[in-house]
Write a structure and sequence with these properties.
With 320 residues, the protein is α/β, with parallel strands linked by helices. It is built from 9 helices and 14 strands. Helices cover 31% and strands 26% of the residues.
């Protein structure tokens, strides 16, 4: 079990424990989507200054593009910290999967003396996921703990779920994914040295590798934003990125990178951690007859990205 204080999440600081009379949120929380955020909203209603503790699990290894995770542990921590949670507890699933529901509750929940526990209506726990919210209600009542079960949220007639969002991302529907996440799908990784083709084309790019365990969008070109810290300042720029192996100049189909042209930026970001956020799928990856035709297409992609991002900004302004 790993207990982290979200006040210092970027350093993954360990603590000896969590305060008693806290409010526990229970779930896997991959993506920390709008349905998950409803649990935080419920916690705020009853918190009365009580600490909010997220009890979750380490992710399982990725076996296919769609079975990956939406959020790494660090991303999950940062999002919950921004939402106002105080602590997060990560359980190794392999270490608890054989526990009965009663054993899990008594060892990992009631032993910490929470004020209340909150979960979604589809929450399962115990060996073989044999227990549901009715069992949780009985255990909570037995130990004098308040239980709140939050109904699943829907969007456009479908229930918001991590499974659905993984499917949307893996199919390239970044708009649909963002509508359910409550933010753009993104990843963060270090800027690597590339072949500097963009520089020769007059449009220098940054190169990143997509995190191995995360759900990967389809190969192609996307409108995006990039965020990073430069000289102690937080910076965000619009961009256009390509996920793929750059077939016009590279025959190795397994050499997949995320190559991004940052609109209006010039500078050295090698070794910098950059967050790339996807907004809209613009076109598929394509091999061009010449580098000159590729350069022309990149200019077209840049204009399409500007239109895509401007439309998003206008929509956000209309909501205000």
């Amino acid at each position: 079990m790993q207990i982290l204080s979200l006040a210092s999440v970027c350093r993954f600081a360990h603590t000896d424990g969590v305060p008693t009379d806290a409010i526990f949120l229970l779930g896997y929380f991959d993506g920390v989507h709008l349905g998950h955020r409803a649990l935080i909203d419920e916690a705020r209603k009853i918190s009365d200054s009580a600490p909010i503790v997220v009890l979750t699990f380490d992710h399982i290894p990725k076996v296919s593009a769609e079975s990956g995770i939406l959020t790494t542990n660090l991303e999950k921590c940062r999002i919950f910290a921004d939402l106002g949670a105080d602590y997060i507890i990560f359980h190794n699933f392999e270490e608890i999967r054989s526990l009965t529901g009663e054993e899990f509750f008594e060892k990992h929940i009631s032993s910490l003396s929470p004020k209340a526990v909150i979960c979604g209506s589809n929450f399962k726990f115990g060996k073989m996921a044999a227990c549901g919210t009715d069992d949780l209600a009985k255990l909570a009542k037995l130990h004098g703990i308040t239980l709140r079960v939050v109904t699943s949220k829907s969007h456009n007639g479908s229930t918001i779920s991590s499974t659905l969002i993984r499917s949307l991302v893996s199919s390239g529907d970044m708009i649909g994914a963002a509508e359910r996440l409550g933010r753009q799908y993104s990843f963060t990784s270090e800027v690597l040295h590339g072949k500097k083709l963009g520089r020769r084309l007059g449009m220098p790019t940054i190169n990143q590798h997509f995190p191995e365990d995360k759900v990967t969008p389809p190969r192609g070109v996307y409108s995006c934003t990039v965020s990073f810290i430069l000289d102690g300042q937080s910076c965000t720029f619009d961009g256009v990125c390509n996920i793929g192996h750059r077939p016009t100049v590279n025959s190795d189909k397994n050499d997949v990178t995320v190559e991004t042209y940052i609109i209006g930026f010039s500078g050295d970001l090698y070794g910098t951690e950059v967050k790339t956020s996807f907004f809209e799928y613009l076109r598929g990856e394509k091999k061009f007859p010449s580098v000159e035709e590729l350069s022309e297409q990149v200019r077209i992609d840049e204009e399409k990205a500007k239109i895509s991002l401007a439309a998003f900004a206008e929509k956000q302004n209309d909501k205000k």
